[in-house]
Amino acid sequence: MIRLPATLVLAAVMLLGLVVGSPAHAARPDEPEGDDTGLHLLREAAIAGRTRGYSGTQYVTTWGRSGSGAVSSVLEVRNVPGAGLTVHTQPSGLVQRVDPGTPAGGMSTPSETMLEVLARNYRVMAAGGGRVCGRPARLVHVVRADGTVAARYWLDEAGGPVLRRELLDGHGRVVHAGAFVDLTLDPARKAAAPVSAAGGLDLGETPGLLARGWRFPAALPGRLELFAAHDASPGYLYLGYSDGLSVVSVFVQPGVLDEERLRGWHARQRNGHTIWIRDSAEQETIWASGGHVYTVFADAPADMVDAAVAALPHEPVPAPDLWTRLGRGADRLLSWVNPFG
Amino acid sequence: MSHLGERVSALVDGELNHHERDRALSHLTFCAACRAEVDAMRALKNRLRSLDGPAMPADLTMSLLRMSEPGGPLPPRERPFPISSASRTFGGAPIPSMHSVAPPDNRPRGRAGGGPRRTRRAGYVAVGVASAAVAIGTLFVAGGSGPSPRVVPPVDMFANQHRNTAPYGGSATPTFSPTP
């Protein structure tokens, strides 16, 4: 029997321990989201979109419900860290200071909460590289559970913002595209490690809204989740839904829709109900239901918008009964004679 | 002894004392005229006893009944002259029965709850109904025909709010401003 030197045995044990304890099977530090290999890339681009100074020209195109009509605009953008993003829209000439996380800002800087929602509803996968406006870019795919691509992002490899963003419907058709045609990045400044915006829900008023009689769903088809709800003057309810990728805004007003005063809108029959639509970048929809008027704006694929609209109330307008009319008359008489009214 | 005269009736009624009755009976043994008069008197009295007693006047009966139940419902009035009343006669003439004639209402007017009080109550009801009708009509007209206000969505304002709201941006006030 051969006796091995003690030092050799100790070296072998240490080598074995290194091999067994190696983190090679775990996620790399820059990929903490597991399968969502592109999520950290989106986070970095979102941070850059808020903290890097840049200027450039974007074009934005949205295809309507029919797929034939499209609405396009050209944006002159300028971002100054600490001052915000300024957008000069052509051909309207409108100049606005906007939040880059909003639809007006191209939704290019999602908050950390929105990224969590995105990762919960989709797989966010790195999909190689490419070039946009002459700049090298990393491509990220946002994939639905059925394997179809819901969105594509081209992210600046030099630490800049999102260079191009596309939304696709369930049939693989591009329904929205926004891209830089030229971009100039300001020199990066040495600063503390930037962090992404935390974000969060805006549902603090929900108990009060429910107490005041408002009823609304917490989610809509297409994994759209309620992120904001509040009523505002002059007497309407605002509801915001998002799946982490798209956004649908619902406005509810008490009253009966005055259809005669709807100019430029087209009536359509959907599942036995009449809705009014207008092809625009926001896919606007109006309809009346049970003494309320609903207005929907969406930056989302048309099939998702149609499913959301179908899930919202579509009740017949109630006929005025005798007691309702008498009660309204009493209210009016009291308001007429009330000197403090 | 002379004829019995006025003592005939007393004899028939048994109102003579013992001595006078003996003397009257002794006279009848030989006076045929007085015997005939006593027989006629007895026949008349027997006929009168066979008749019913006189009925109570109907007016008096009804007046007593009404006075016993002030304000209560009146007994049914049977009119006019039911056939059964024809069987009651006095000397061949019909006698009205208790329910054969509608009695006059002799109750005091203030307590009877009759005409003026009912009329006044009906007046109150009529005034109340008319007032309610006017009030309901006023409310109905003031209520208008529309169930709710007719609205047209402020599309530009809504679109501006939609475009300038960051999803999951937190509870910060949206940065949108009305479209100029």
Task: Give a quick summary of the entry.
By secondary structure, chain A is an alpha+beta fold. Chain A has helices spanning 6-20, 39-51, 112-121, 206-211, 302-311, 322-337, and strands at residues 54-63, 70-80, 84-90, 95-98, 123-132, 135-143, 149-156, 162-168, 174-185, 219-220, 224-232, 236-242, 247-254, 256-257, 266-270, 273-278, 284-289, 292-299. Mean pLDDT of chain A is 83; it is low at 6-31.
Task: Describe the protein's architecture and organization.
The complex is a heterodimer of chains A (341) and B (180). Chain A has helices spanning 6-20, 39-51, 112-121, 206-211, 302-311, 322-337; strands spanning 54-63, 70-80, 84-90, 95-98, 123-132, 135-143, 149-156, 162-168, 174-185, 219-220, 224-232, 236-242, 247-254, 256-257, 266-270, 273-278, 284-289, 292-299. Chain A has 341 residues and is of the alpha+beta class. Chain A has 2 domains: 33-185, Lipoprotein localisation LolA/LolB/LppX (outer membrane lipoprotein receptor (LolB), chain A); 206-311, TM1622-like (Protein Transport Mog1p, Chain A, 3-Layer(aba) Sandwich). In chain A, the strands form 2 sheets. A 9-stranded antiparallel sheet of chain A has the order 4-3-2-1-9-8-7-6-5. In chain A, strands 10-11-12-13-18-17-16-15 form an 8-stranded antiparallel sheet. In chain A, a hairpin with a 2-residue loop joins strand 17 and strand 18. The longest helix of chain A is centred in the C-terminal third of the chain and has 16 residues, at 322-337. Chain B has 180 residues and is mainly alpha-helical. Chain B has a domain at 7-50. Chain B has helices at 7-13, 18-28, 32-50, 58-68, 115-143, 155-163, and strands spanning 89-90, 93-94, 150-151. In chain B, helix 1 (7-13) packs across helix 3 (32-50). Chain B is rod-shaped and about 150 Å long. At the A-B interface, strand 4, helix 3, strand 12, strand 13 and strand 14 of A face helix 5, strand 3 and helix 6 of B.
